[in-house]
Structure formats: C-alpha cells, structure tokens
Amino acid sequence: MSFGSPVVLWGLLVIPLVAVLYALAQRRRTHYAVRFTNLDLLANVLTKSPRWRRHLPPMLFLLALSSLLVGLARPQATVLVPKEEANVVLAVDTSGSMAATDVAPDRLSAAREAAETFLDRSPKNLQVGLVAFSGMPVRILPPTDDQATVRELLGLLKANGGTAMGDALLNAVEISRPRAGEDPASERSPGFAEIAKSPTEARRPEEKSPAAVVLLSDGTNTSGQTTPLEAAQKAREQDIPVYTVALGTPEGMVEEFGEGYKPAPPDKEILRQIAEITGGQFFASSSAADLARVYDKLGSSLGFANEKREVTLAFGAAAFALLTASGTLSVLWFNRLP
Asked: Cβ contacts of residue 331 below 8 Å, gap of 6+?
C-alpha cells in the first residue's frame, strides 16, 4: 500500500502517547480509590462493572483516530481491475442455413440482435471487430471503438452460400491482435469499403492486449482451406479464447432453391471442441435472449491489470463506525462520552 500524503502518517505517533496518558490516568484512579478512607461510601460510589468494559470505549476511540489519520494520508491500494481496452472479434455465420426460422425471426437476425445487445452493454472503449463468413470468410472490420460502424455492418449481413468456418475463425484470430507494422484493414472486404473507409485506427500496443473471438455458427464446415480444429489450435497458440454459440435447434429446416426444405441442425460437437481447445466456452442457444448471456459473461473480463486505487473512503468509514461504537458503548455503560 502506498500513500498520497505520507507526511500525515507522522500523526500516528500521537496514538501511543495518548495510550500512555490513558494508562497513567487509570493508575492514578486506582491510587485515589485506595486512599479513599470511607470504604462503605466508596462501595456505593463505584459502579460494579467488568474491567474490560471500562477500557473498550477508549480503545475504540484510539482505533478510530488511527483510521482517520491513515485516511487523511490518502492510502492507495493496488487492485485487479478489468481491462476494458480488450479486443473482441465477432465471427458471424452468414451461410444459407442462417435463414432458418427455428429461432425467431430467423437465426441470422437472432445473432445480429445478440451482437447489438453486446455493443449496448460494452464499455465505449472496447475494441470490437467483425468477420462474416459463408462459403468464404469476408474480413469486414478490424477491432475498432467505432461501434456505430459495427452496428451498420451487422445490418448489411445476408444469409447465402456454404460454411467456411475454419478459414473464418483463422481470419478472426489474425485481426483480433494485429502484429506490429501490420495494417489490420488491409483485407477488408471491398463490398463494405464505402461504409468502413475511415474506421477508428485499431490499437497496436507494444504488449499483447487481451483478446477473444465470439463464433456464432449453425452448420458443419463445408468449404475453405483450414479446418475448424486447425484454426482453434492457432487461437490457442496465441492465447485467444473462442466462445462458440450453436445457433438453431435440431429441428431447424432451411429452404433450398428447387429442392424444398432440408434439415439444418447445428453442429454442436465441433463448436464444443473449438471452445475446449482454446479455453473459451460453448453455448447451445436457441434464442436471442440466450445469446445475449454470452456477452454478459464476456463483458470486460477478458483481462485484468494492476491499478492503484485510492481507498480513503474505506478508512474514513471505518473511523466513523469505530467512533460511533465508542460513543454509544460509553453512554450506555457509563452515561458519559469516552
């Protein structure tokens, strides 16, 4: 513990001095009682009470004085606080099966609603990135605190095509913590260039920032060059947890052009394995409300840092409580203040 005004601590030297004066006063009181010649009258004058009661209120008073002096010295404690400057990349499946309506109004809309809930509850300086994927990953936006842009891009997502989950996860891992000298926007999809042409510059710290990926998907990997488990190993090597969300229900159906409706159950097992490998967490959700709880768990808990916090208020409150207790006990027991 450190102090903003350590010179005030010299005042603590008064405490032992007061304690000595109190002891001398008690000793003098005893001597006076012995010299009192009328013992019958003395028995009536002195109140019979346990000796510890007589000393407790003054002791509490000295403790209150000590706490007050420490508080005036502006104590600062080192505590662990959430690092709100963490990077989170949302990897959203936009394959054709995301049009299934087993999650109202449809899977993609539920994922979008959950992502917006996350933005609503996140600190304003949290860096949020976005990767959308279907038959191939589309790197849309690197982590940025421009949450209005993230919201606008979420609104443009459409369900179509296959599922390149492995490539998309690898893509999200790469932009979640860009290497020094790398332009995180270099591979942004040209289709969104007009909207995302001037995003807030992504953070490039000298030391690693805490990062995480939230993977929202409903299907089995059907295309791409990287398997989901290979991408998960890359995330593990970079200490980036992946939180996976299985969108949809086993009864989900999707309409395919010219072929009618086909089953589209989520592949929960592969998503569970990705979470386990990376140290993240798997969620089997079927509603926007369930998905929102994923982001409640993330919040600002991606990392912690040591930070000095002034704790003057705590010592002041302790001094007030001790002083109140001292005065109350003294009045109740002896009808006087200490």
From this structure: 337
Dihedral sign of CA atoms 256, 262, 264, 269 in order: negative
Tens of pLDDT, residue by residue, the chain (338 residues): 778 888 888 888 888 888 888 777 777 665 555 554 555 554 555 555 556 677 787 888 888 888 888 888 888 887 656 555 678 899 999 998 899 888 888 989 988 887 888 788 777 777 899 999 998 878 789 999 898 999 999 999 999 888 999 999 999 999 987 655 454 444 444 344 334 443 444 444 444 667 889 998 887 888 889 999 999 999 999 999 999 988 888 888 887 766 778 888 888 999 999 999 999 888 886 555 655 666 666 654 455 566 777 888 888 888 888 888 877 877 777 666 65
Q: Provide the b/e sequence for 50-60 (b: ≥16 CB within 10 Å).
A: eeeebebbbeb
- Cα distance between residue 249 and residue 103, in whole Å: 8
Lookup result for tokens 């002034």: 310
Contacts of 279 (CB under 8 A, 6+ apart): 236, 241
* Cα Rg of the chain, angstroms: 33
What single DSSP character describes residue 296? Answer: H
**302 membership: H or E segment, kind and range:** none
Residues facing residue 76 across a β-bridge: 2, 310
Which domains can be identified in the chain, with CATH numbers? Answer: 2-79+309-334 (no CATH), 84-302 (3.40.50.410)
Q: What angle do CA 331, 335, 337 make, to 5 degrees?
A: 55
Q: Which residues pair with 144 in a beta bridge?
A: 128
Task: Tell me how far apart the alpha carbons of residues 272 and 268 are, in angstroms, rounded to a whole number.
Answer: 6
DSSP conformation letters of 193-260: TTTSSSPPPPP--SSPPPEEEEEEE-S---SSSS-HHHHHHHHHHTT--EEEEE-S-TT-EEEETTTE
Give residue for tokens 């042409």.
Answer: 197
Report H helices in 6-94: 14-35, 39-45, 51-72
